[in-house]
């Protein structure tokens, strides 16, 4: 175990996992392998024999997870099952336990946590891990190898509880984190997944409704295959994902609509000024191309120290002239710089790698 | 060799190749392997030693290709080199020789062919073959394994010359064809490649200009990687490709802009009517998903006979009540039904496989 983050409980953390699917099952096995005590519940006991053989304690009732007073109780059920699980947990949660989750949208989960009055003990989490399979049978601790988690807060999140979740991820799972607010998470997820799913579907729709669709499809190669792959995934799941993040997706769809319409106008004009602007359009993404080239070249990650000053909630110490700087602002600024935190050296200091710095 | 399409020349075709890059070099080797006599020219003689070892005759001057009076002379140079090559060929082309090419836009090549007065002997062609490499060193006859070619015509194309190119591709190369007009080709290419390249770049631009770009990139997974892959390719090449097909790309960008803006409006509204329309949006591409599922399942290709009636240029015989049906209409209709012609059984009849039938 790494740095002792919670001096009143020097022993390894006890983690409860609600839901032994691909993500929850892999997490339970990973934590067990790395010496944590894991208690788990699943809506059906089917995976219990295999889970017990892997050293995971299994219980029949989700409320028993809370009654065991773990350091963290992680909700790993599908999003739609969370309200029901939260209703069963609410009456029996001990104030010691931090409630976390692995859901792919953070605003909606926090709203559901608030609805049962558990928001004081909640810290959001979302691991960038998964594959095309599902269920405990597909679980694999190596799913979390070198994975990044987004850990999310709101204005009421306790720094103490945040540290407990950071300890679980960095020391327990052995992964990296960025710490951001729920809305920043959901806007970023809209950008790199939810909105592009709509764009991919719109491309597939355009082809499907074209009279020469069979001719176009006959000429299609890698570009088309790549850009419509996610349009082939279960449209009901995609629709649910888009509707859960509707405002962010809508705003980005407007942006994209404007970008495409303005390129159309430039191509129709075709005069020298327009062609210069077409050239600019293709140059905008240059920092992104450079970043991807560095990534492909396997450039060493630079290591940096991040001062968080979490113990000064008002943040007057360490504040810049431009204003206050609480731990929230400092961690969000670190994430915006492309830093991924790998561990904490004390309560107020993190070590991070610069992994994704995109300058434009 | 297959069916004898040109009874006045019963021997195997003689093919001239201008340009021994990846596409031209692979084509020359493929035809040589399959028993055709191939004469080739390249703007630099660097590949000649290897080409000669592969049985390809190499000449120092592009005009010598025309003077050899081949059955087909195929332009395999980059698009921008074509005007110059065509100027050198024009004074020495024999009326026997059919001029063809492998360019990825067809309207522009035909305009350049017209500019030197060679349109009477021209038939367009575009093989769906290639990879990320270039040059003769990367050439490989298997690039043409089971490939599809678009063969293109305009209102002046001779059926006799079309048959010579069909023979070269189906019997000489051993590939499949669809026969369509230039504009249908360029609209289809805009749909599955040129326009999506702009969309991919617009996505990369949106991320690059977002203040939280590093956070978004940190959360990115397969969806984002797939949808921005072509934005990473040489932006100057992409820009040239888009500008060569500007009108078609612009029209499709308007369509896409409208699709994205209307989805944005539905997500912002969020009432029951809007959500029903969101559901419809995700259902439109269902025929495309079904087609891709059949493709993955490896469903057997149905074989059909296509009556072309090329010898009745006016098409009154075999015309439907709705109007005339020349060989142009019949071949275009076949391509629209998703049929890929594999060979001809006589001058007026083709055998095709149904490969891409997308019904909506």
UniProtKB/TrEMBL annotation, chains A, B:
Q: Name the Gene3D superfamilies for this protein.
A: 6-phosphogluconate dehydrogenase C-terminal like domain, NAD(P)-binding Rossmann-like Domain
Q: Per UniProt, which keywords does this protein have?
A: Oxidoreductase
Q: Which domain of life is it from?
A: Bacteria
List residues traversing the bilayer: none
> Prephenate/arogenate dehydrogenase domain: which residues?
13-297
One of the GO BP terms on file: tyrosine biosynthetic process
| UniProt GO molecular function | NAD+ binding; prephenate dehydrogenase (NAD+) activity; prephenate dehydrogenase (NADP+) activity
Xref: Pfam families: PDH_C, PDH_N
Q: Which InterPro entries match?
A: 6-PGluconate_DH-like_C_sf, NAD(P)-bd_dom_sf, PDH_C, PDH_N, Preph/Arog_dehydrog, Prephen_DH
Q: Family assignment?
A: Belongs to the prephenate/arogenate dehydrogenase family.
According to UniProt, the name of this protein is Prephenate dehydrogenase
